[in-house]
Amino acid sequence: MKISITSTLSILLLVSTGFAQKRPLDHSVYDNWKSINNAEVSKTGQFIQYQITPQEGDALFELKSKDNELLFSLPRVADAKLTQDESFLIAKIKPTFEETRQAKIKKKKNADMPKDSLIILNIQQQEQWKIPAISTYKLAQNKNEYVAFLGADSVSILHLRNLVTGDTLNFWKVDQFAWSPNEDFLLFSKKNKAKDSLSTDAGLYIFDIANKRLKKISNGQGNYKELLFDDNGTQLAFLADKTPEKSLLRDFKLYYYTPQLDTAHIIASQQSVDMPSRWYVSGDGELKFSANGEKLFFGLAPIPKVKDTTLVDFEHAQVDIWHWKDDYIQPQQLANLKRDKSKNFLSVTYPKNGNRIVPLVDDTFNHTRSTDDANNEWILAASDFGKRIASQWEGFALTDIDVVSTLSGEKRTVKENLNGYAHLSPKGDFVLYFDRETGNWHSYHISSGRVVLLNDGLPVSFVDEENDSPTLPGAYGIAGWSTDGKDVYIYDRYDIWKFNLAGKGKELLTNGEGRATQTIFRYVDLNQNDNPRYKTTLIPDRQNVFITGFNESTKYNGVYTVNTSKNRKPNEIFSDGYTFRNFKRALDGETVIYTKENYTHAPDLYVSKQFKNESRLTDINPQQATYNWGTAELVQWTTPSGFAAEGILYKPENFDPNKKYPIIAYFYEKLSNGLYTYQAPAPTPSRLNIPYYVSNEYLVFAPDIRYEIGYPGKSAEEYVNSGMRYLAQNPWVDSTKMAIQGQSWGGYQVAHLITRTDMYAAAWSGAPVVNMTSAYGGIRWQSGMSRQFQYERTQSRIGKTLWEDRDRYIENSPLFFLDRVMTPVAIMHNDSDGAVPWYQGIEMFTALRRLQKPVWLLNYNGDEHNLMKRQNRKDIQIRQAQFFDHFLKGKPTAPWIEHGVPAKHKGIDWGFE
User: What Cα–Cα distance (Å) separates residue 139 from each residue in 163, 428, 528?
Assistant: First the structure.
């Protein structure tokens, strides 16, 4: 007995000592923290491939069998593809991170930067070949005896390699290439250098793989684009502009070729009979054959005005003229200038039937949509012409929905002034549309013009039941369509419904179990498809399909089955405290891969047989076990106004209830549904780096906020302050060392809260709006949009114009109450912020400085609303930790906090120590 007790004590001592030795995370760990990327399962289910990618450094590619046997482990491999028979794997090998870094340091030109290599693996024979300096490679869609790849040297060479024999053919001066779907032909263009006036080999070529015969099908130097075969590989089309290189107008023409022709023929140009006046073939339009090969879709556009090059720039004004009747304000026009210059409008021609051209829409239309196969007569078209000005304050424009005949160009109106969105059914015989004004789903039968209210008489809502913005709620969306195209599957908040488009019936697929148990059911599309034509989600009829379930109360996630022809309670396969993502299934219908994570488990990759008997394939972050990690738990309380509230409380792994901990609240709308998601330690765009603080013995609290329209500031008080006071009742919370942190909308709420309470010892506000009166008239410079819609209709939630309720704008503007602030606050606001004008941060800083209150402003030069540059993300992690460590833990003041960094020391002294 004595020995047993001693052994037990020794074990406990060892465990205790081992636990105590777990170190806290520091800022050096970020680069090596890894994630799973590009996970795929092969069609047969025999192979699984993925990348293990560090935040900074070289990725590792692994190929495994479905039995978890490691077949290949290859550093820096990317863009990996298996051949159709799964005999070979083709991929790029990226240069090392350090090699690229050194080239950047030496400021090498793009042409001299390290190049990708190609690797070819024979899986069965365990053989591999590497080819240096390539730019791209391609495999044909349906058959893979060959791989084609383009060299990255000064003279680009197209290499055609037989995968079995290794025999290679080379074609010089190639700038682009395309395969026919069945690998019968290889199409490529050759381009001569601008100064080479003697060469005559520029043009477009087709290589017959079986007969090893090369044929030039279009002659001349030019810009060849959109090299496209039809689905059978028996006809092809392309765009080409052969005007002189210095021409200001690029005059593209549509060319067509079949093996029966000597050369490619022009079938559409600005001289074509059916071409609209002063329009031409757009070089920016996408080409698309219908699946049956009868139709060829392409883009048309008005011929643009060209600049008079005889004008001297410095003798003419450079001016933007804003006009109150413009569709869009000047900043928005300038932000979208490249897009608008490339805008084109759908047209169709019939190359097998006289090449007649049918323009389908003009320049008043915004977008069009065809079915995946495009064999049917009608396309969907939408226009907000004449209604665009209101998008300045509404955030959207009402839309007219039409269908257009690809045979005649006839247009039929489906719905005018729609506030919502529309879909074309897979067979192209119905239009499905959602109307926000009524919250209803409708179908429109194209041939008869009959409209059916699909959800007529149903007792449930199909719009966002939790909407707390001053705009009409949106729909929960559609899951997919039946394979025969007669039915559509639509979500309500919890369940999945099946509606017959002709109005002949409706079924509650999940039998109301979702609403009864507060579980959100959503379809999982596991159908593997490598044909880029087919993008529509088709749900099999009369079969068991997989759905996910998220329980709003427990926050558990799970996978279930449900039969598409039976209204029964979903059958639970599993439901647990994890988040499951990235589902992929082999064509065998058995082998399924996915990632699985929660706060304590990194998102590793798993394989299972129809979600049963799972096996773990990866262990991407084993180093986590050596650090003091943490836990996540759901906290629930009642706000002062009697509202039920919840949030996530993160505690350190070595949490001791007999100690007192500082606590930081981080918030942005609603976060509690992420209870079981992983938080990797990483330099963030300005959000709180939760695992870092938890590991360093802070408590972190992420409360949900539900908003009262017109009172976003008070709503933050209602939930954040009450949640922090609720937690402060615990003896292990140091109520004198509480802080708040938020970015963007969260940054605004931080700024508001410190004007209403002195309960916080420190605050960090990223990209805040502090003056809603000036921000209301501001610009989102990245998109060029006016910010008015945010206040009247969306996130800022005032719900009225500045002139309708001036007092409410002032009440919700921290600027007017900054004299009340007692909390030291750091602001981050960057001079290239494209969402919130950075003068908002300046207004906050200068006001607090004038009031002689402790305030700091970080402006990361040239960076955006959320930090994009990794070096800046790393920098802010250090400063934020120093800031909170000083005010919440009493650590020494960092020099930048104590006395700043003078401009003359910028880039010399960072003020860290």
Answer: 11, 31, 18
Give the H/E segment covering residue 192: none
Which are the contacts of 144, defined by CB distance < 8 A and separation ≥ 6? 83, 84, 85, 88, 163, 183
- Both tokens of 689, joined, read 């780096």
Which residues lie across from 496 on neighbouring strands?
A: 491
d(CA 702, CA 599): 14
What confidence category does residue 199 fall into, taking pLDDT thresholds of 50, 70 and 90? confident
Burial (CB count within 10 angstroms: exposed 0-12, middle 13-18, buried 19+), residue 419:
middle
Strand 855-858 relative to strand 296-302, pairing: unpaired
> Whole-angstrom Cα distance, residue 438 to residue 418?
11
pTM: 0.95
Q: Residue 857 pLDDT more than 80?
A: yes
Cα angle 245, 246, 250 (rounded to 5 degrees) comes to: 70
Instruction: Report how far residue 359's alpha carbon sits from residue 361's, in angstroms, rounded to the nearest whole number.
Output: 6
Helix H segments across 651-804? 690-695, 712-716, 722-728, 745-753, 772-776, 788-792
In the predicted model, what is the mean pLDDT of the chain?
95
Nearest-angstrom CA–CA distance, 458 and 466 = 19
| Range in 18-27, 37-46, 415-424, 864-873 with the lowest mean pLDDT | 18-27
pLDDT of res. 347: 98
CA distance linking residue 19 with residue 889, whole number of Å: 23
Closest CA to 667 of 724, 616, 741: 741
**In the predicted model, what is the mean pLDDT of residues 638-654?**
98
Q: Write out the two tokens for 803.
A: 């002139």
Q: Which residues pair with residue 585 across a beta bridge?
A: 592
Do the bridges between strand 185-190 and strand 174-179 make them parallel or antiparallel, or are there none, so unpaired? antiparallel
Rg over alpha carbons for the chain, rounded to the nearest Å, is 31
Q: Are 137 and 115 in contact (CB under 8 A)?
A: no
- Contact between 89 and 77 under an 8 Å Cβ cutoff? The reply is no
Write phi, then psi, for 130 (nearest 5 degrees). -125, 135
Ramachandran area for residue 907 (φ above 0: left; ψ -120 to 50: alpha; else beta): left
Nearest of 353, 361, 248 to residue 298 by alpha carbon = 361
Q: Cα separation of 201 and 192, whole Å?
A: 8
- Tell me if 607 sits within 8 A of 618, measured CB to CB: no
pLDDT digits (tens, 9 = 90+) for 105-130: 999 999 999 999 999 999 999 999 99
Buried b (16+ CB within 10 A) or exposed e, 683-721: bbbbbbbbbbbbbbbbbbbbbbbebeebbbbbbbbbbbb
Q: What is the pLDDT of residues 45-82, one digit of tens each?
A: 999 999 999 999 999 999 999 999 999 999 999 999 99
Backbone angles phi, psi at 168, to 5 degrees: -135, 135
Per-residue pLDDT tens digits for 727-752 = 999 999 999 999 999 999 999 999 99
Q: Is 638 helix (H, G, I), strand (E, B) or coil?
A: strand
Instruction: Give the tens place of pLDDT for each residue, 35-54.
Output: 999 999 999 999 999 999 99
Six token digits for residue 738 = 């509480």
Q: Report the candidate in 863, 860, 853 with the shortest Cα–Cα distance to residue 821.
A: 853
Q: What is the DSSP string of 413-472?
A: EEEEEESEEEEE-TTSSEEEEEETTTTEEEEEETTT--EEETTTT-SS--B-TT--SSSP
CA dist 786 and 776 (Å) reads: 8
Burial class (CB in 10 A: 0-12, 13-18, 19+), 847: buried
Q: C-alpha 736: how far from its chain's center? A: 40
Going by C-alpha positions, the residue among 812, 650, 831, 828 that lies closest to residue 742 is: 828
Could you give phi then psi for residue 595, rounded to 5 degrees?
Answer: -100, 150
Cα–Cα distance for residue pair 728/273, rounded to 1 Å = 79
